């Protein structure tokens, strides 16, 4: 059976809606007012665009009092958008908020709930090199389970019919896969809880702390080029 791609295509065919989806790609839930400000449009215009995204099943809406909060519909939508990004040219920044949000996306960012950008791909490469996962990024080895558990990463148990434990998510900036699935989310959560990464003030980019750079290098065998990563805290070098 063929699929009607025009519905999704129409929903994506507006720079404002693209801006909304890009901002929500970090798995966050944001009020309509914040989305409107990010895209540089009025509240009424934002509402119209959000209705289109809702009707297409790309976002979900949760009312909280008088306000409405929006998020991507699920991880599948996020993965699809990340892959589509490989076919799309960079979007020009319309507002100063967008310009700030765009800085550092190439280096480290969240793709829904897992690591992406140079950091995400570097972590994936290290996991393969250390034989913690298979080269296809579909299976966690026994050595991988042991190392991750010893390092404090709770390896989720695979569940039939649920989210896959591990799968390769094509990175739209690096053109190579990073680690997605339940394990990818667990790794990102681990990095955040240890204080190795933190969100940038705007958008879905990530900052890597000094302690994080040292720990990721020593515990995960990931070499971070400080000329390519913005390090938070006592900044060693800015991009």
What would you say about this model in short?
With 239 residues, this protein is an alpha+beta fold. The chain has helices at 6-12, 15-24, 32-39, 43-55, 75-84, 96-102, 117-129, 142-150, 181-193, 210-220, and strands at 30-31, 59-64, 67-72, 109-111, 114-116, 167-170, 177-180, 197-199, 206-209, 231-232.
List keywords for this structure.
239 residues, alpha+beta, three-stranded antiparallel sheet, three-stranded mixed sheet, 10 helices, 10 strands, globular
Protein model, in words:
The protein contains ten helices and ten strands. By secondary structure, it is α+β, with helices and mostly antiparallel strands. It has a three-stranded antiparallel sheet. The model is unreliable at 230-239 (pLDDT under 50). A hairpin with a 2-residue loop joins strand 2 and strand 3. The chain is globular, with a radius of gyration of 18 Å. 42% of the residues lie in helices and 15% in strands. It starts with 5 loop residues before the first helix and ends in a 7-residue tail after the last strand. Helix 2 (15-24) crosses helix 3 (32-39).
């Amino acid at each position: 059976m063929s699929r009607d791609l025009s519905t999704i295509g129409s929903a994506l065919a507006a720079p404002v809606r693209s801006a909304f989806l890009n901002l929500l790609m970090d798995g966050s839930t944001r009020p309509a007012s914040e989305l409107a400000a990010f895209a540089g449009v009025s509240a009424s215009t934002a509402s119209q665009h959000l209705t289109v995204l809702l009707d297409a099943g790309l976002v979900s809406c949760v009312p909280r009092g008088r306000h409405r909060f929006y998020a991507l519909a699920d991880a599948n939508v996020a993965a699809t958008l990340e892959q589509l990004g490989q076919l799309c040219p960079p979007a020009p920044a319309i507002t100063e908020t967008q310009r700030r949000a765009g800085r550092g996306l190439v280096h480290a960012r969240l793709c829904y709930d897992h690591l992406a950008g140079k950091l995400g791909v570097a972590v994936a490469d290290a996991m393969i090199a250390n034989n913690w996962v298979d080269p296809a990024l579909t299976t966690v080895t026994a050595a991988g389970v042991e190392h991750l558990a010893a390092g404090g990463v709770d390896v989720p148990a695979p569940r039939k019919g649920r989210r896959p434990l591990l799968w390769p998510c094509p990175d739209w900036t690096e053109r190579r896969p990073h680690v997605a699935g339940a394990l990818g989310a667990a790794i990102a959560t681990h990095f955040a809880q240890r204080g190795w990464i933190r969100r940038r003030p705007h958008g879905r980019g990530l900052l890597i702390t000094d302690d994080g750079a040292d720990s990721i290098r020593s515990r995960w065998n990931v070499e971070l080029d400080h000329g390519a990563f913005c390090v938070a805290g006592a900044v060693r070098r800015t991009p």
